[in-house]
Amino acid sequence: MQAYLVVVAILGFVCQQATAECPAGPSIPTQYIIGPAIADSCPTGYDCIKIDGAGQCVDHKVASCKDASNSCANWAKTGYCTDPFYEKTRATTCPYTCKLCTASTCVDKSNNCATWIKNSNFCNSANYDLAAKNDNCQKSCNLC
Q1: Rounded Cα–Cα distance for residues 122 and 142 (Å)
Q2: Would you say residue 18 has pLDDT above 50?
Q3: Predicted TM-score (pTM) of this structure
Q4: Which residue has the higher pLDDT, 130 or 8?
Q5: Residue 57's closest CA among 41, 73, 71?
Q6: pLDDT band, very low/low/confident/very high, at 132 (cuts 50, 70, 90)
Q7: What separation in angstroms does the CA of 142 have from each of 52, 101, 122, 137?
Q8: In what order do the strands lie in the sheet with 54-59?
Q9: Which residues contact 122 (CB under 8 A, 6 or more apart)?
């Protein structure tokens, strides 16, 4: 009976987590949106943000990118984002306004990763060296 209650409690918590509404977010360039959130939930490494009324999954690094100053928009008009003098500070002060937010570089370069993993246990197999795994299926093999 206790095990049953624990399972019910865990499932209830998971369901509450999955149905939490995505917070409204800033306008994000479409190349950083991987697709719609399912039940307002996204895969690991991605945040759910409500864009134009719908939950979208966005790379965490881009979704969490915010300016540290309220003056960034004004500074940008005067050249802050392009002036070499401010090169060392703009990435931490005004990354959003200066368009310095970038997505994670962890990606699979091959479209065959799922097949290789399924058919030959590619990520865990000693038949393939680490360089091959990194070069082809870095994300699927959890190497980044």
Answers
A1: 12
A2: no
A3: 0.42
A4: 130
A5: 41
A6: confident
A7: 32, 23, 12, 8
A8: 33-36, 54-59, 46-51
A9: 113, 116, 128, 133, 137, 141
